[in-house]
User: Which sequence fits this backbone?
């Protein structure tokens, strides 16, 4: 019983409960919301945000923020897109369909590294630097693409297929769940989440990120190589944005210099904050972030189903963020109060 | 050692005070001024149509609403907080004002109610940040989405018109300068004096530098911060209504993206994002810098892509310079 | 970094000075600018192509500019800049029906000809001189309904996936579609069950389409009169493999829909030729500036390749009367 109570008092339980309540509430009005089909739709809404959230989480835990992830997503997606489109012209042959994946990741990592250098070398506030690179990288995306989008026919169908097919498919003749599958990109997204968890919780560097975020001044005194860790988190954030970039091409089938990745950073930050990561650094769990992403996914999927006009959707998102903050604060106060009780 | 420096009767360990000319000139605002001059120069090179004072003033009016709010926002940032909701505030206040006057309320009453709603929005921010002690960046991201959403609910996707006589605030000229620009200049002078020369102003700097220490010194930091959030709310509402007059109608997407422009103006002016440093003069110059650079590029038909790159680079360059200046002047 | 921009600026500036030294006299050598809704939008590349080719024939100077985002007020600084540059004609695809009223009035006060191309300032027509639309918008709705009907055998549940709730062209077409479905007995067995809005964003259009499929299991057809919406809807149908059950059609760009037509996901869709809009606009401007065309309702004039054009009510002109239908037989003939 005690174990259960301790579990419930945790931040993540609160979000899980919110998700359950929300889905039940929507499900009573629209039973279609509780079907496997709907779950698939929700899952498909989340992979990009999930991957971005993993990177952003690390950055925020380290007491920074990365506002340029959307532009990094767009740029790396565009680089791969242009490769697919012009490979015959440039090299004389078609590159294998999977080339875009490592390419996007590498490009993203490079951009993220650029952020890291500016922040670490010049000791600049991350929020301003990434605000600048948000514009800079977006502009570069326009320039390399000559402001033209990469149309659907240029993206290899295998890439697009990653959003529809997968190894986890229930055969069509299976009762009830027949034909249900979890697309590859969802599997990859959860895989990234698991890797992030292992990295943060079970490696020395992962723990150092938390230490750096909770006390940046003391960090070097504890033997943490602040420069290396900072560069690392921003490079990872960039690399994951790159991965999200090729997944954008997979999910939507095209790359557009102005839309691809635009507004991504706000959705990701909202999910991360709802998931319990503190903006002051040092606090946050992968599970919480995953739940935060899922909650936003459920809300996003429910709105069109409930027929809520686009006009009200922003208001709802804003309220969700505020409510999550309130809950976060209440939980923390309770947590601190209970600790005080224990000590007394 | 400079012969200008006053004689100092201290031991060998004390660093001599910096020469006066250094204090006056080596500051972030100087960098902004230099960039501004370079910008004018570059603009005139880029296009023969640029160097026309009337054109530049007319272009400034397009950004004047954001610039006015940026001035007050600077004070909020110096105090160690941030407010990303003013642009959404502008939209919601303008929508409320427009909706009221479209439904029969006399304009002066509608204006007052619009300003009051802006005040209320500032109060909501203040409540979450001060009373509930939540980080202002996240709260105001939440409220910015909320206010924008409410504006959407009130106005839908339609525009609400204002009467003919109300349109054209930007056409009213005082000494050849459009009224919004005049208001910007006046507000800059007033706030500059308040921030730089009053006790209230000094307290804002102290709160921003070290909130805990300031409170221990007896400064009512909570009260001051609440006041600043309320001020931003009212000024944003005023700016929103002014925009309604300039455009002739109000839509929910009024000022979309404006929050970034305002923060940009404050940053380019040397305001430190974590509080404690910054000046109204800096933001004032930075607003002009932003207008000059944007206008210079637009009138030269420079690709939007290049414009984005230039703006991004500008921000990074100015932030590096600001940091260098601050770190070198720290003794 | 600043040095580089200065050097680039110098280079651009010199080029500008060289090309901008033409006399600003009326004649065929006038300056025309087309302000699109935003950059990176392939649709406007087609219209630009029409302008450029026409200006090559006429001898006018053409430039295309567009803001980075399609917000309501994003084009205002661009209009101001073009006035400052002394252009003779401003053609614009407006992002807002009325946000630009004041600045367009300023332009016209300076003698600049203001044309709305591909969209109109609905309710604010007095702030522009003329409007060029691709087709007679009142016929678009019925055309689309007929195409949908022919694909589904004139019976079954259908839905509409539109763009933004306020887009005036969308609302004109949707109203006409509703009217056609209600009044024409040919369509009596077709039932419109929902109208949803994808905001011209691929993500939102996709989720709205998926919601439609989820909410209406008996849906047999979706009309998406927006290039973004129809492509998104087709993508959903293709990825689920239900092309034989749910028929998608609408207004689409051949370049975006080609794949879908070739693999049978979409049997047919419609559009017009954006290229022709640019072409017509340039010739019209030339005529008005040189006095050969009177900008009055009822006037007719000739345009190479397009034939005879009539100026209709509210100074609106169309490049063609009805929509062009694209299907497997002609999809390869077009390069936009």
Assistant:
């Amino acid at each position: 019983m005690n174990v259960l109570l301790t579990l419930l008092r945790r931040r993540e339980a609160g979000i899980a409960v919110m998700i359950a309540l929300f889905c039940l509430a929507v499900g009573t009005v629209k039973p279609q919301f509780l079907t496997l089909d709907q779950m698939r739709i929700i899952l498909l809404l989340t992979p990009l945000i999930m991957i971005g959230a993993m990177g952003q989480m690390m950055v925020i835990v380290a007491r920074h923020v990365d506002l340029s992830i959307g532009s990094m997503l767009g740029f790396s997606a565009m680089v791969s897109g242009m490769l697919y489109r012009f490979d015959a012209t440039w090299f004389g042959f078609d590159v294998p369909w999977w080339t875009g994946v490592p390419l996007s990741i590498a490009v993203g990592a490079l951009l993220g590294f650029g952020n890291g250098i500016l922040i670490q070398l010049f000791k600049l506030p991350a929020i301003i630097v990434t605000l600048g690179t948000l514009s800079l990288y977006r502009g570069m995306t326009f320039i390399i693409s000559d402001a033209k989008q990469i149309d659907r026919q240029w993206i290899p169908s295998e890439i697009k297929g990653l959003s529809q097919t997968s190894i986890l498919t229930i055969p069509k003749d299976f009762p009830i769940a027949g034909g249900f599958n979890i697309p590859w990109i969802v599997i990859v997204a959860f895989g990234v989440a698991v890797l992030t968890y292992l990295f943060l919780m079970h490696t020395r560097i992962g723990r150092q990120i938390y230490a750096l975020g909770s006390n940046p001044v003391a960090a070097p005194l504890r033997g943490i190589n602040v420069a290396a860790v900072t560069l690392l988190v921003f490079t990872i954030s960039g690399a994951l944005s790159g991965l999200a970039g090729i997944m954008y091409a997979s999910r939507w089938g095209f790359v557009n210099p102005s839309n691809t990745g635009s507004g991504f950073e706000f959705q990701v930050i909202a999910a991360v904050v709802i998931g319990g990561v503190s903006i002051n650094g040092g606090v946050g769990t992968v599970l919480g972030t995953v739940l935060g992403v899922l909650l936003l996914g459920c809300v996003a999927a429910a709105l069109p189903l409930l027929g809520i006009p686009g006009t009200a959707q922003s208001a709802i998102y804003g309220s969700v963020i505020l409510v999550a903050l309130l809950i976060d604060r209440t939980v923390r106060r309770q947590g601190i109060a209970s600790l005080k009780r224990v000590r007394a | 050692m400079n012969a200008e420096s006053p004689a100092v009767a201290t031991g060998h360990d004390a660093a001599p005070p910096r020469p006066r000319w250094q204090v006056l000139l080596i500051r972030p605002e100087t960098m902004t001024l230099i960039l501004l001059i370079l910008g004018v120069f570059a603009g005139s090179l880029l296009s023969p149509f640029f160097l026309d004072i009337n054109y530049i003033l007319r272009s400034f009016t397009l950004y004047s609403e954001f610039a006015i709010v940026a001035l007050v926002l600077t004070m909020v940032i110096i105090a160690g907080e941030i407010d990303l909701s003013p642009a959404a505030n502008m939209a919601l206040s303008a929508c409320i004002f427009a909706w009221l006057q479209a439904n029969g309320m006399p304009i002066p009453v509608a204006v007052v109610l619009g300003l009051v709603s802006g005040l209320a929005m500032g109060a909501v921010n203040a409540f979450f940040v001060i009373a509930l002690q939540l980080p202002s960046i996240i709260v105001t991201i939440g409220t910015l989405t909320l206010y924008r959403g409410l504006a959407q609910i009130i106005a839908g996707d339609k525009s609400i018109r204002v009467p003919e006589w109300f349109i054209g605030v930007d056409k009213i000229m005082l000494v050849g300068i459009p009224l919004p620009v005049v208001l910007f200049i006046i507000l800059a002078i007033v706030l500059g004096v308040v921030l730089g020369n009053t006790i209230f102003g000094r307290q804002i700097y102290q709160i921003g530098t070290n909130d805990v220490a300031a409170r221990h010194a007896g400064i009512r930091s909570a009260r001051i911060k609440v006041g600043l959030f309320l001020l931003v709310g009212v000024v944003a509402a005023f700016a929103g209504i002014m925009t309604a007059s300039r455009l002739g109608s109000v839509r929910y997407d009024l000022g979309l993206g404006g929050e970034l422009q305002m923060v940009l103006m404050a940053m380019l002016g040397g305001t430190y994002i974590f509080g404690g440093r910054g000046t109204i003069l800096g933001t004032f110059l930075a607003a002009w810098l932003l207008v000059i650079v944007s206008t210079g590029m637009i009138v030269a038909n420079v690709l939007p892509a290049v414009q984005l790159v230039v703006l991004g680079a500008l921000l990074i360059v100015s932030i590096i310079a600001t940091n260098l200046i601050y770190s070198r002047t720290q003794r | 970094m600043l040095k580089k921009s200065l050097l680039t600026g110098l280079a651009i500036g010199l080029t500008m000075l060289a090309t901008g030294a033409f006399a600003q006299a009326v004649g065929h050598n006038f300056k025309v600018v087309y302000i699109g809704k935003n950059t990176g939008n392939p649709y406007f590349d087609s219209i630009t192509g029409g302008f450029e080719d026409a200006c090559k024939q006429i001898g006018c100077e053409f430039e295309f500019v567009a803001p980075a985002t399609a917000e309501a007020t994003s084009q205002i600084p661009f209009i101001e800049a073009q006035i400052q540059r002394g252009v003779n004609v401003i053609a614009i695809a407006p992002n807002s029906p009325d946000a630009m009223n004041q600045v367009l009035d300023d332009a016209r006060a300076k003698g600049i000809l203001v044309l709305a191309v591909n969209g109109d300032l609905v309710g604010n027509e007095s702030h522009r001189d003329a409007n060029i639309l691709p087709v007679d918008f009142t016929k678009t709705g019925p055309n689309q309904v007929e195409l949908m009907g022919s694909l589904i055998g004139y019976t079954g549940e259908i839905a509409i996936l539109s763009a933004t709730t306020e887009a005036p062209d969308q609302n004109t077409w949707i109203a006409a579609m509703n009217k056609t479905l209600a009044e024409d007995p040919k369509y009596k067995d077709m039932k419109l069950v929902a109208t949803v809005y994808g905001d011209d964003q691929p993500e939102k259009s996709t989720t709205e389409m998926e919601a439609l499929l989820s909410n209406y299991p008996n849906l047999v057809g979706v009309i998406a009169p927006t290039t973004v919406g129809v492509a998104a809807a087709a993508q959903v149908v293709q990825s689920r493999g239900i092309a034989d059950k749910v028929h998608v059609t609408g207004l689409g760009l051949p370049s975006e829909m080609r794949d879908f037509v070739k693999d049978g996901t979409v049997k047919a869709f419609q559009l017009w030729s954006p290229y022709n809009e640019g072409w017509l606009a340039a010739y019209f401007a030339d005529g008005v500036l040189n006095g050969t065309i009177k900008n009055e309702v009822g006037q007719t004039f000739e345009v190479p390749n397009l034939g005879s054009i009539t100026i209709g009510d509210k100074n609106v002109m169309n490049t063609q009367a009805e929509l062009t239908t694209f299907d497997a037989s002609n999809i390869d003939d077009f390069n936009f």
